[in-house]
Request: fold
Amino acid sequence: MNREELIKGIKDLKSRHNAIIVAHNYQVDDVQEIADVVGDSFALSKHCASSDADVIVFCGVHFMAESAKILSPQKTVLLPELDAGCPMADMVTSEALIEKKKLYPEAAVVCYINSSADVKAECDICCTSSNAVNIVRSLQEKDVLFVPDQNLGNYVANQVPEKNIILWEGFCITHHRVKVEEVKKAKELHPDALVLIHPECQPEVVKMADFVGSTKQIIDFATDLNHNKFIIGTEMGIMHKLKKNNPNKTFYLLSQGLVCPNMKKTSLLSVYNALNEMKNKIEVAEEVRIKSITALDKMLQVG
Ligand code: CIZ
Ligand code: SF4
Reply:
C-alpha cells in the first residue's frame, strides 16, 4: 500500500472500530498528521479517558499507552509498535524501588510519568515535566525520593530548595547527551534566538536556557511570545507542531542527537496493522491499576 492508501485504510478502520488515534509530540510527522490529538503523555491519556471511543491507538511509547489504560480500563488500548519502550522508564523497577524506600521510610515518593504502572503503584504521587516543581512543593514531607529522572529531579531540587530531594540514577538517553558546547555553538550561530530546553537535559545545559519546560510548555511559550527565533532543546518531533503553529517563526534544533529511536518506531503502516489486526493490546493487572491510579489522582488534586 502506498501512503494515500494507508491513510485511507486507517480512516476506514477507525470508523469501523470506533477508534481514536492519539500521538505524542515526539512522533514522526506522518503519524502526527493522522492523529486526532497530538500532545504530551498526560494530556493524551486524559483526552482518551473523556472520549467515547471504544479503541485507543496510542502512538508513543509503552508507559504512555499504559497510563491511558490505567485511566480508561474499559477501553481497548493499542500500542502500534509493542517494543517502543522508554529506556528511562526501564531504569527503575518496582523491586528496586521497594528496596530503596526501606532506606528512606520518611520520604514521599514521587514518580515522573515516565515510569511503568508497577512503579507508579509503589509511589505516593506522580508528576509530569509540566508540573513536577508544583507537585514537589505541595508535599508535606521534607524528604522526597524522586524517580527515575535524575535531571528532572535536579531541576526540581534547584527550584524547590526547601526540600531534600533524593535522586534516582535514571536519565533519558536522548536528552542526557546534549552538550554545553552544542548550546554555545547554537547560540553563536543564532545569537538572536531564545534557547528553550527540556528539563530532562543535564543541569549544565538547563542552566544555559532562556526557558525550561515540558513539550507543551515549550510549544505554548514559543507560540505566545512576541519573538520569532528559537533554539529548541528537546526531541526533534516537536518541530512539526512548532512550525505548523508558527509558520512565520524560525526554529533551530539544538542538536542533531535529539532523536528518540523508540518514538520513531511508529509509522503509518504500524498504525494500520495494529488497527487492522486489533493487535498489541496493552493490559494492566487490576490490582496494579488501582494502586497506580492513586498516584495519578493525587497529581490531579494538586493541579
Ligand atoms: O509527559 C510527556 O509527554 C513527556 C515525556 C515529556 C513532555 O515534556 O511532554
Ligand atoms: Fe524516554 Fe527520552 Fe524517548 Fe522520552 S525521549 S520516550 S524520556 S527515551
About this structure: The chain has three domains: 3-85+263-283, 89-173, 178-253. The radius of gyration is 19 Å. The chain has a mean pLDDT of 97. The CA atoms of residues 193 and 229 lie 4 Å apart.
